[in-house]
Specification:
eight-stranded antiparallel barrel
């Protein structure tokens, strides 16, 4: 065979290999026009402060948008508030429940069910119904086996325009087509609170052998026949297997703490900021046996718009997004400062002038825990409300100091800056009082927001001295850091 023929065949083989490589790597796709795809993002309307709404700031948050996307685009003018994804009962696909509002803030709120159509094999809206809640910032949706048959119910909680707690529950009807798959089995609107009374289920239920006991629902409202504002009426609802609905089975009176009624009316008047200022304190957990757990406590900081949880030797800081007055206290929506998709809805009720009862719904956008380790009674740890005349400095001031850190500037806006040469550090600050001591908290904004520095402020010879401390349930603990002297700049 001639050398030219051998070269020809080798060339054919190399060319074939090159062609295979080009096709495998998708080189030609660069020259093929791609079909444009439209990305649909859902919107959430939530108030930044109680009573005020802002859409734009929420729309600009990728954390919200990515976690509130729906299987199919919503219609024009529909704003998504909450989304729950769950596996279908057959385990073949993922179903989705979306809570949304059509129109402005005064419009009713609906829930829609998105599932795969068995004929077309694409997602579509199966049904669409209104719910009792009307305040978007209070709404939470989760699923739970209330009946004990492993048929998870869909539970939507929130508040309405009358600041009543609401709960709407849907349950799947076995053997029904997807369009009729879920029916409403309970809907409550109470001026007090609504709780699901969970009971311990057997090991056989946990192993999937038998059914479990059904959970009852309890509501607590004001006893209008009593002069004591904290006296309540407890109403118990149980699931009726015949009607396939929750029905009232028992009503009883629950006596509340005997507190001076004038002070009580002031706290529960619903006036803006009154109850928030009351809980501005450190609160530690009280076990059902009445013992104090000094390893679990919560600090409410309404002026700094933060709620701090401490338990299991870990501190979690949440932004206080908004709060809504309730019949017996306040309902707070908060967001973790480190994990933006972690929300906590905190329902606080007054028990006495030094104790509160708290229920927390934790929403991580993937899973919702309705009963958490933070639920229960808390007792005031003794931090007093900020003093006015007795304080060395008011909560926010305009002042200038020299120190070993550099030039320290406090602004009336609650911001501070420390300038040393060409470097400037910034953050937020607040002066407050604990156990008759004036304290200063510095919170840097150019670093880790959890790096909160607290100092005891002492006066002497025309200067202010800062001593680093730590707050705990046992009081103020001094830290070994050297003191900082602040010299006023005139």
């Amino acid at each position: 065979m001639k050398k030219s023929s051998i070269g020809f065949y080798i060339g054919i083989v190399l060319l074939s290999i090159a062609l295979i490589v080009v096709l495998a790597t998708g080189f030609w796709e660069r020259f093929i026009p791609q079909k444009e795809t439209e990305e649909h993002r859902s919107r959430i309307i939530t108030p930044l402060e109680a009573g005020s709404y802002s859409i734009m700031e929420i729309e600009n948050s990728n954390a919200w948008d990515e976690n509130l996307s729906t299987k199919i685009p919503m219609e024009e003018g529909e704003s998504v508030i909450a989304v729950l994804n769950k596996e279908s009962e057959e385990g073949l696909a993922e179903e989705q429940f979306a809570v949304y509002r059509r129109g402005d803030a005064g419009s009713p709120i609906h829930i829609t069910f998105l599932s795969i159509d068995e004929n077309t094999r694409i997602y579509r809206r199966m049904w669409d119904v209104p719910i009792a809640a009307t305040r978007a910032e209070t709404i939470s949706i989760y699923s739970q086996d209330l009946i004990g048959d492993r048929n998870n119910c869909i539970i939507v909680t929130g508040m309405n325009s009358r600041n009543e707690h609401t709960m709407t529950i849907f349950r799947r009807a076995q053997g029904q087509p997807a369009r009729q798959a879920y029916t409403r089995i309970a809907e409550l609107q109470i001026s007090g609170s609504i709780v699901i009374q969970e009971t311990t289920r057997s090991q056989a239920y946990l192993q999937g052998i038998t059914r479990g006991a059904s959970y009852n629902i309890a509501s607590y409202s004001h006893d209008t026949s009593s002069a004591n504002i904290l006296d309540q009426i407890e109403t118990i609802y149980s699931f009726n297997s015949s009607s396939q609905r929750y029905e009232q089975i028992r009503v009883s009176r629950v006596p509340g703490s005997q507190i001076e009624q004038r002070r009580l009316r002031e706290l529960l008047s619903g006036a803006p900021g009154v109850f928030e200022n009351f809980i501005n304190d450190l609160w530690y957990f009280v076990s059902p046996h009445g013992t104090i757990n000094s390893r679990q406590y919560i600090y409410f900081d309404p002026s700094g718009r933060e709620v701090i949880f401490y338990g299991d030797d870990a501190q979690q800081v949440f932004r206080w997004q908004n709060s809504t007055p309730t019949r017996y206290g306040v309902y707070i929506r908060s967001q973790n400062i480190s994990i933006s998709t972690l929300l906590r809805f905190i329902d606080i009720e007054l028990e006495s002038l030094d104790s509160i009862r708290m229920r927390v719904i934790e929403d991580v956008r993937l899973r919702i825990t309705a009963s958490t380790a933070w639920d229960g009674t808390y007792r005031r740890a003794g931090i007093a409300e900020p003093r006015e005349a007795a304080s060395v400095l008011s909560p926010a001031v305009d002042a200038l100091f020299d120190s070993s850190w550099g030039r320290l500037t406090f602004n009336k806006s609650g911001e501070y800056s420390i300038t040393a040469g060409a470097n400037t550090r910034r953050g937020r600050y607040i002066f407050f009082s604990v156990e008759n001591y004036d304290l200063l908290e510095l919170r840097p904004t150019d670093g880790n927001e959890e790096n909160r520095m607290i100092y005891r402020v002492e006066s002497g010879a025309g200067v202010q001295i800062l001593n680093r401390i730590r707050l705990s349930v046992t009081g103020i603990l001094d830290l070994p850091d050297p003191p900082i002297t602040l010299t006023p700049v005139n």
